[in-house]
Amino acid sequence: MKRFFLIFFCLIYSFSSNADIKDKIIQNLKNTNNLDFKFEQNINGKIESGNCIIEYPKKIFCKYAKSNNKTLVSNGNSLVIKTTTSYYRYPLNKTPLNLILDKNFIINRIDNLNSRIIDNDLVNFTILQDDMKINIFFSSKTYDLIGWQNTDIYQNFNITFLSSIRKNRVLKKNLFNLPSQD
């Protein structure tokens, strides 16, 4: 009988602890207007890195290191990927970033999802939406967004890790203007 109560209380503690972490992640997201960070991205084994700035909702500016001056920019409607030799423009709503960059969507979805704790460091939520599967990861200590994995519009498996995260900084007004094709 004692074993039953011990197991019962362990389950209750685990459930309340996960719910508490989820609430803290949601509150942290609500308090975040923008964030900048270093990133490392692995797309089908090709690793790239650089710096990004996200401004909610749906804006991002990324400058890649050592890769043909690659820049990725979303103004909230379109997504442009530009290098020294190429220029691609996509409707943002056709990409997984449309969901990843929408903190209200993420808040609403994770509020109704079960979390998964990985190695006591990561909190994972799996979002299924419009034939897309996105795994979003948060720190279990800071409650910050620290990465995601998804399949991109070309069916490439994409894993993105964030580090050196800073929140709610003053941003340049024209930062999210789409670059010209030149």
Write a concise synopsis of the structure shown:
The chain is 23% helix and 43% strand. With 182 residues, it is α+β, with helices and mostly antiparallel strands.
List the helices and strands and how they pair.
Blueprint: H1 2-30, E1 34-43, E2 46-55, E3 59-64, E4 71-75, E5 78-82, E6 87-91, H2 97-100, H3 103-111, E7 116-118, E8 122-129, E9 132-139, E10 145-151, E11 157-167
Antiparallel strand pairs: 1-2, 1-11, 2-3, 3-4, 4-5, 5-6, 7-8, 8-9, 9-10, 10-11
- Contiguous uncertain segments of 5+ residues: 1-16
* Name of the level-1 CATH class: Mainly Beta
Examine the secondary-structure arrangement and name the CATH architecture. Clam
For this structure, the CATH topology is: outer membrane lipoprotein receptor (LolB), chain A
Integer-rounded radius of gyration: 18 Å
Largest sheet: 11 strands, antiparallel
- Helix-strand category: alpha+beta
What is the terminal separation in angstroms? 75 Å
**Which homologous superfamily in CATH is the superfamily?**
Lipoprotein localisation LolA/LolB/LppX
User: Order of strands across the biggest sheet?
Assistant: 6-5-4-3-2-1-11-10-9-8-7
Give the CA-based shape.
Answer: globular
- Distinct helical segment count: 3
Helicity level: 10-25%
- Count up the domains: 1
Order of helices and strands: HEEEEEEHHEEEEE
Give average pLDDT, whole number. Answer: 89
State the total count of DSSP E strands. 11
Explain the overall architecture:
- Helices cover 23% and strands 43% of the residues.
- The protein has 182 residues and is α+β, with helices and mostly antiparallel strands.
- The chain has one domain (2-167): Lipoprotein localisation LolA/LolB/LppX (outer membrane lipoprotein receptor (LolB), chain A, Clam).
- An eleven-stranded antiparallel sheet has the order 6-5-4-3-2-1-11-10-9-8-7.
- The radius of gyration is 18 Å and the shape is globular.
